[in-house]
Amino acid sequence: MDTLPDYLAPGLRLLSVGINPSLRAVREGFYFPNPQNRFWPALNASGLLAQPVAPGPAAMGLILARDRIGFTDLCKTASSMAHHLRAADYRSGAQRLAQVIGECRPPLLWFHGATAYRAFCRHVLTQQDVVTPGLQPQTFAGARIFVSPNPSPANARYSLDQLIASYRQLATCAESTGRERKLSGLESA
Fold it and tell me: What share of residues in the chain are helix, strand, coil (percent, to 5)?
């Protein structure tokens, strides 16, 4: 089955992790393509990017090269809805994601919603049943873990303003993580 490619490179500032690609994302060739999805407006207002971008395949490469933000999914199985994934998809996806993280060594992991993070914990880390948005108590392969609300239009629990506030908190976390790495000599200035 077709899927979205990972956008990965050495020296990432953070790695964005979704649950799985939608069928539309695979067709259009970029993450979060639904115009009702709040990801792109929140990202552009977050302070994570040097300058706002227009959603599309070209934005993926620009964000990777310019802003050092990588993109992947917990599961690479494309579906119309995440609830169509099977337990085996989560199990194999979590192992694949652990390998990706181990290879690219981002200092900060950014999970879009508690579902992806809980599944990663269940199969790779220690189970964490209660997940609130923000910086998490666990780390993986030296990376801090941040969970933001899922930007999907199906997640009406959070408004766009709340999503933007979460992404701004992530931007602050990314800045402090970068400063700490420079001070510790893990990253060149």
Answer: 40, 15, 40
Give the DSSP per-residue string, 56-95.
SHHHHHHHHHHH-EEEEES----BSSGGG--HHHHHHHHH
The residues that bridge with 15 in the sheet, in sequence order, are 70, 109
pLDDT, one tens digit per residue, over 49-65 is: 999 999 999 999 999 99
Q: Which of 131, 16, 26 is nearest to 63 (CA)?
A: 16
Domain residue ranges of the chain, discontinuous segments joined by +: 14-184
pTM of the model: 0.92
Q: Containing H/E element for 144?
A: strand 143-148
147 near 113, Cβ under 8 Å?
Answer: yes
Within 10 angstroms of residue 69's Cβ, the number of other Cβ atoms is: 24
* CATH 3.40.470.10 applies to domain 14-184: yes
From residue 173, alpha-carbon distances to 7, 14, 43, 110, 176 in Å are: 21, 10, 15, 11, 5
Which residue ranges in the chain fall short of pLDDT 50? 189
Which parts of 11-148 fold into alpha helices (H)?
A: 23-28, 39-44, 57-67, 87-104, 114-123
DSSP symbol at 38: S
Tokens of 35: 């115009």
Q: What is the reported pLDDT for 88?
A: 85
> What is the predicted pLDDT for the residue at 89?
84
